Amino acid sequence: MAFAGVLNDAEVKAALDGCTAADSFDYKAFFKTCGLASKSSDEVKKAFAIIDQDNSGFIEEEELKLFLQNFSAGARALTDKETKTFLAAGDSDGDGKIGVDEFAALVKA
What we know:
By secondary structure, the chain is mainly α.
């Protein structure tokens, strides 16, 4: 798992179990349950780097769609509705993607 050593496996499983149904993903609940919300800013930046699959310095819509799969390879993709809601919540400057500072603010929201 990409987050081994950063997050507790049982907490990640609980977070994933909480959003198995389509349109049930809630980023605030997910970040809190998986333990990311209580991590240091350096650890949140490490998480951002894992999710930023193409190393562009931003998390784009396609990477958000596959967000849960960063935590478990067998996890579902987010629905279009969930992806757009997640992106809108994190994209504070309106550029259509989430930068590292925007991600940190989203995790701590």
